[in-house]
Amino acid sequence: MELNSTLPNWDLLPIFGNKIPKVTDFKGKPLLILFFNLGCPSCKGRALPFANSIIVDKGNKINIIGIHSNFEGSEYTTEDFETVKKEFYVRFPLYKDNNNLNTFRAYQAGGTPHWILLNKEGKIEYSIFGSDPNNALLRLDLKINEIIAN
Hints:
The structure is a single chain. The protein is α/β, with parallel strands linked by helices. The chain has helices spanning 41-58, 78-87, 102-106, 136-149, and strands at residues 12-14, 31-36, 63-68, 94-97, 114-118, 124-129. It has a single domain (31-149), classed as 3-Layer(aba) Sandwich (Glutaredoxin). Helix content is 31%, strand content 20%. It has a 6-stranded mixed β-sheet with strand order 1-4-3-2-5-6. Helix 1 links the parallel strand 2 (31-36) and strand 3 (63-68).
């Protein structure tokens, strides 16, 4: 995805019966999208806690959603997601990617975790793969702070 472009609408399924928002529903406030997988150690060990820390530190200045992308292997149940939500204190909505990773592919994610940051106008500001605290997460945090300050 090109910087300063808009994302196509996603193709998601609810996990907890919650309504699926549209990408445009988040205009007016930056949006951080986290592509994750429950079988990904980096997702659970660093990405989910980092996303939670953004919610705690930035409060109502940014929206965050998580999109579970399942490449292969076991299917996860609602109970599996409930367990992770409780264990990692997930404070943002979670959804599942639909039909062969349509959203993951359309958004050109590089794996899990992958982050896409939109500005308050809904334009792509940043896209990065990974959860290394001294690389991807540090850069992402700097970009989030920059967007919130503007």
